[in-house]
């Protein structure tokens, strides 16, 4: 793996970092498997691309994307809580609808941002660093700012209710908190982060594409699990940072797979999906293996 | 002394490579593995070999994943290639966004202007990028349809509205059909499992079904073949590979030939040192006609003899 490839992997890890944090919030905190992600990521990209080409500032376009993602997530939340549709199905319905909506937003399947000024260009100009270092730095700073804000939020009264909703809904309901509203808000918040991530990704890769969300949830879950396994999840702050670093690790693993050569045996590009799946399986069984190993030793 | 030795060693190294002829490093990014896209990659390599150009090919395929597609660009930058070959739109866009200091050659991009790769087809914006478009010669497709199905009033088309290549194709079909007073009925799908349903929805609404170079539809073309055979509805396509899979005929870009022509462009950049900014976007004018007699019979069409005579491949 060359230095460029390593920095490229770190860059991708942080570009998708907000998405992974969003996935963490629904999957782990709210205990809500949310497939809206595959649709809200391109939604964020589409909104951002449309806003930029219509003359809005690229920074503002990220907030517009987040707003759109918030609405999309809230739709999933409302379908689940108010209409009692199973969470998985509710999110699949929103995701399906978003495909058409994203095509409407852009008016075409692929919207180029080549030649348009993006937040990446602005930051590269400001920092004076080479693009390959400035870009991952920018995305890392954005992710860390969001993580800091989330850590603060999760220690407020509303944040604590949010954390408790996923843990024990009955208990928190008996405390007089409306869990429906918390789920609607939580899934909305998660998808706002996912859409903001989509906006960053589109500005980084030079185009928004209606198919760019495919496989997001798999990448998001893999990153969350990888992060938990490697960095631990003892406290909420640690878990959030672990999820973010998990995103980076996941992309580094893919980067390694892309350039792997073992003597005369080299990984062909078609092996990549298999490697991704093995990686996720490995991350999933690691904690169990660890426990078994420790139990075996104490005998 | 050490310095002199080092210098001498460096000189020898440079001299030996100069005498052996330069080995060019070409990094390839391709969005997905697919016969047409693979054919372009192989065609370009074959043409460079024919020309006696020494090169190594670093092939990266994103397996349809946009995140991997972007990540591949950093892999490529690390390889410090002499030329970047980007096959299909997403790879070309990601490279154009990040690579500015070395030539990028794209191929198999239907609409490079809308994709933002070049300002216009003459490539006048002075960037490090040029390439080939596989835009369907829609006037020839419509002419072929009229030749095989005389008196056609309505063409039914199945396409994926989410594919960047399909939307301009549909627009072109509408324009060409309108010129000769033919209507177009659309059936849109979101994934390949929808092809069967979409084909069925066209039965009774059109005289002939047309499927362009739409990756999603083409990947499940057998379902369209089945519906068309069952309902004696002719199926004419926009890529020659689908003819072997059961469509009646296609006059289309031969992706291998397109790869060969891309190889010519690559040689001009690498060997002749021509700046990509000075090279306009190229098209493939040498088209192939394939016909399938068995499919024609099954769909209730008699192929006119001139069409059979013109075909470069006739499937009995």
Strand content of chain B: 15-25%
Q: Using DSSP, what is the number of strands of chain B?
A: 13
Q: Class by helix and strand content of chain A? A: mainly alpha
Subunit arrangement of the protein: heterodimer
Alpha carbon gyration radius of chain A: 20 Å
Helix percentage range of chain A: over 70%
The separation of the N and C termini of chain A measures 42 Å
Query: What share of residues are in beta strands of chain A?
Result: under 5%
Discrete helix count of chain A? 13
Integer average pLDDT of chain A: 90
The SSE order of chain A reads: HHHHHEHHHHHEHHEEH
Radius of gyration of chain B: 22 Å
Q: Biggest interface between protein chains, with counts per chain?
A: A-B, 44 and 40 residues
Element string of chain B (H = helix, E = strand): HEHEHEHEEHEHEHEHHEHEHEEHHE
Notes on the structure:
The complex is a heterodimer of chains A (299) and B (316). Chain A has 13 helices and 4 strands. Chain A has 299 residues and is mostly helical. In chain A, helix 2 packs across helix 11 (216-231) and helix 7 (131-154) packs antiparallel against helix 12. The N and C termini of chain A lie far apart (42 Å). Chains A and B meet through helix 1, helix 10 and helix 12 of A and strand 2, helix 3 and helix 4 of B.
Fold topology:
The complex is a heterodimer of chains A (299) and B (316).
Chain A: H1 3-15, H2 17-29, H3 37-53, H4 58-81, H5 87-106, E1 110-112, H6 119-127, H7 131-154, H8 157-167, H9 169-174, H10 179-205, E2 207-209, H11 216-231, H12 236-258, E3 261-262, E4 265-266, H13 272-298
Helix pairs in contact in A: 1-7, 1-12, 2-10, 2-11, 2-12, 3-4, 3-5, 3-10, 4-5, 4-10, 6-7, 7-12, 11-12, 11-13, 12-13
Chain B: H1 2-20, E1 23-30, H2 35-50, E2 54-61, H3 66-79, E3 83-87, H4 89-98, E4 104-109, E5 129-133, H5 138-148, E6 154-160, H6 166-179, E7 183-189, H7 195-202, E8 208-211, H8 215-219, H9 221-230, E9 235-237, H10 241-244, E10 249-252, H11 255-270, E11 282-283, E12 288-292, H12 293-298, H13 305-310, E13 313-315
Parallel strand pairs in B: 1-2, 1-3, 3-4, 4-5, 5-11, 6-7, 6-8, 8-9, 12-13
Antiparallel strand pairs in B: 10-12
Helix pairs in contact in B: 2-11, 3-4, 5-6, 7-9
